[in-house]
Prior knowledge:
- By secondary structure, the chain is mostly beta strands.
- The chain has four domains: 6-421 and 456-524, Methylamine Dehydrogenase, Chain H; 628-643 and 885-906 and 996-1115, no CATH class; 658-831 and 862-879, no CATH class; 919-991, no CATH class.
- It contains 20 helices and 75 strands.
Amino acid sequence: MRSTNHLALxxxxxxxxxxxxxxxxxxxxxxxSLKGTLFKKVSIDHSQINxxxxxxETDTFNYFNYPYIYxxxxxxxxxxxxxxxxxxxxxxxxxxxxxYLNKGDLKFDDVTVASGTAGDGSWMHGATICDINNDGxxxxxxxxxxxNKVCRNQLFVNQGVNENGIPVFKELAKKYGIDDPGHxxxxxxxxxxxxxxxxxxxxxxPITDFKTPSFFYSQMIKHPxxxxxxxxxxxxxxxxxxxxxxxxGLLSFSLSLSATVTxxxxxxxxxxxxxSDFASPDFCYIxxxxxxxKDVTAQSLxxxxxxxxxxxxxxxxxxxxxxxxxxxxxxxxxxxxxxxxAGMNTAGFYELVDLGLHHQYMYNTLQLNRGLDDxxxxxxxxxxxxAGVSSTDWSWSPLFADFDNDGWKDIFISNGTRRxxxxxxxxxxxxxxxxxxxxxxxxxxxxNELDNVHKMPSEPIANYIFKNNGDLTxxxxxxxxxxxxxxFSNGATYADLxxxxxxELIINNIDHVADIYENRSNDVGxxxxxxxxxxxxxxKMGIGTKATxxxxxxxxxSELTLSRGxxxxxxxxxxxxxxxxxxxxxxxxxxxxxxxxxxxxVAVDQSLTFNYNEANHVYEKPALDKPLFTKTDEALLPxxxxxxxxxxxxxxxxxxxxxxxxPALCVADVNKDGLDDYFVGTAxxxxxAIYLQQPDGxxxxxxxxxxxxxxxxxxxxxxxxxxxxxxxxxxIVSGGYEFRDDKNYQDRVYVNIxxxxxxxxxxxxxGSGSCIRPYDYDGxxxxxxFIGGRLSPANYPYPGTSxxxxxxxxxxxxxxxxxxxxxxxxxxxxxxxxxxxxxxxxNDNKADLVVVGEWMPIKVYINKGNKFEDQTAEFFDQNMxxxxxxxxxxDFDNDGxxxxxxxxxxxxxxxxxxEGKPFKVYANDFxxxxxxxxxxxxxxxxxxxxxxxxxxxxxxIPAIKAKYKDYKSFxxxxxxxxxGDEELENSLHYSVENFGSIYLENTEDGYKVHYLPNExxxxxxxxxxxKDWNNDGQLDIVVAGNLFSSEVETxxxxxxxxxCLLGDGKGGFTPLSYEESGIFMPYDVKQMSKITxxxxxxxxxxxxxxxxQMYYIEK
Length: 1115
């Protein structure tokens, strides 16, 4: 089982849970469809909320002299007068803050003046709710920034209500020692040292030149200063705080836009995630439990957003682990994307990586928490693409909440920037005008900056909202849920403003009145539970407390953290939607110090309060169940090193590098001692080696290749008895992209003569290959070889050259003949082959050949005796083209025939495809320069557009820049407009409508396609191992992959960590979590092979630029 929710699982082992059938029989409400939209905007006349974060731009104060002007304000919700109704507080930048008291029925009174909460005219950002003096009254902490060198944060302490029932506040930040002088954006209160009182973390955004080079960021990170750092204040317990940033290990440089706190590794201590703008990296701080933190960003996350804005953390997939949502600024719309997004510079991108600033991409990231690694660090995979939430334009505040009360947390994202400050055309024109201006005048005056501001494009955008489908994916519901109104939104929060059991939305807008959206999900019979806390004396609101709800077959976990999203705080109550469940089986509350209380058979549709003093049990962490696989020490195994080569210098618009597909791997008992040995290949510049297993399970490296063989790159390999002398020889397929077709791609064979491997002569095979599959196709008693051709160097996506080699060898003398076209006509240039399998595909007891590859259909060559015929069309009446990387077989439904698992690119990649919405490639010499050009295209809003922008496209074909003189005209042009209908028609052209990895079921009526679970769609599947791994009599599969070599505008595919899927013998598969399987391969895994080491069965894997790993199953 997962270590998720250890306490909850331990306690539930003592509880008898009511069955789902019993729950279903006790439904009290019928689930009616909602008439109208889920949300209904509340009019200003009704709510009386007229707050407007109005910006007044002048010649002396505007974007050009204060580029942070559009960062907006926040909004927070709390019951400030303790009347049982949540009130609302807005912060303003150039206007006063506003406090509105809730009068019921979604009506509010503006009590700003009487309450003393308007502020002092500073540039206000985040509003954080707290109870600073533990008097039971909610206080407000304000994060302040602006043009001043020193900006002091403010604290409005609630003094209680006056004679009119209005809460009155007094500003006392300095008294408490938390008038932070940084340029702050957001703050959060939490108990970092578990001493019972609440400490304070302040996220700061120091004033920085946006054109600062990457080296500056790396130096600032290496040598951080207190004035430009975020700050941690420890609560002394006597009404004062002290800055402990440096001693806590948090002194850093970061352009912090949000700080979100939760327990990421379930150890009982609160951790911190910092979202940072521009090249400055995010920080994932894990609490060491001794008053210090360690940054595990590089160890825990494979990638982050580049322009990191707001964040929220919650368990969106109900597995008990906290996941992270971070937003960026990439538009979903093609036109806005091409007008506003600059192309990423390859050299600049890798400079950031080399400087330790991580892999950062201009997309939202949804970090799925996979569990803890061997060092206890949480491990995350970005699944934003498969989730459908990667591109939401210029986004600010992401919020997880169950808006439709179905038991799954949905996503709201506020977005919009008052002016398009990344508009390429505007700034290109402005730069040109300024150059002319400064050359033409010698006067000490300047152009009218305000006029330039007004010329800057401005386009309001609708906020985004997504419904959680419960399968790691979300469905966009902007119009369906009533949020189609466009604007410029920043801070946002949610609360049950009318106390009816569903969550309203409150949004702070620039240059527009704030929005209140009434939630109407309770109109359709959905149930809920609200959980309130009466905490201990030093933490009255119970900040940091976790609640777990079991209802029917579902578990939900939430943690009380108020600062969420962007510059905003949520109501200090936990909400759980329950769908149609009419009873809660169990509700567990765990306080920050480990004390817990459990209630069983809880009624729904109520607000329930838990008191700290009634929690009489203390949690003891249970031991974990042993995972299925155990990993050996990878430090003792070889590590692959790739040679340096920039493929994009050859073909600038490649979708990914083609030179990083190694290394090769194969396993066999080479020396006949009864122990499995293995060979691992290398990149150009070094030689591979054989590793002989020793009786103690260790391996001895055997170097056998001559020095001159270092020029080859090893892509495929197999041990095979080529000369029929009873021992195993070694065939190695050469590949790569670095060279044109020449001798460096020559395959090699090493004949085993008395235990020594000697290189033998092969026919001339100088194509860049991928795989080797032995089979005695002619039945003469020796093994013939199919060699898959991977690519045509410098000529993507043209096919490589595949070969069929007939084995004519004699003892100690390898001899092959190329018989490709004679035996398998048409297969020589079948495509960019990645894998192949000899198998009885048509159930006639003869081995056929099935070949898969990039931009290829699943090709089927049927054995007709002396020849093989392409009968692909006989088996597939649908478009089966994909980026297929692997194939393996087994009888997964126990019906006596052979089924297949076929690994594809997956559905968690920038490139998406679906039926009727193909992803395409065209290749042609479009500009007549004797070089092949690449055009990748996709569907957007019903038309076909180029994937790459004007800048990148014109690097390949300079005439594009002349034809489309600005980004706007390019953004409005489709592929036919840009490249010409005739030219595209005459191009090499491939189209893909499916990137999903599949289970291909062999039925009486032909083959039926089933998609593997979404857990298997998170990354490319580069290799597959089929075996009954858990010894239950049913075939299981282990898959692994990733694709780290993507071009830099495309986030690399790195969400795969290896996956074991247990078969049920009926064609169904259940994915195991990392903690259940023990498999953790977060590398660019290329190949795997089964192996037995020390008498224990398992597998070995190799990765590009990564380690060799071995996993085994304890007997």
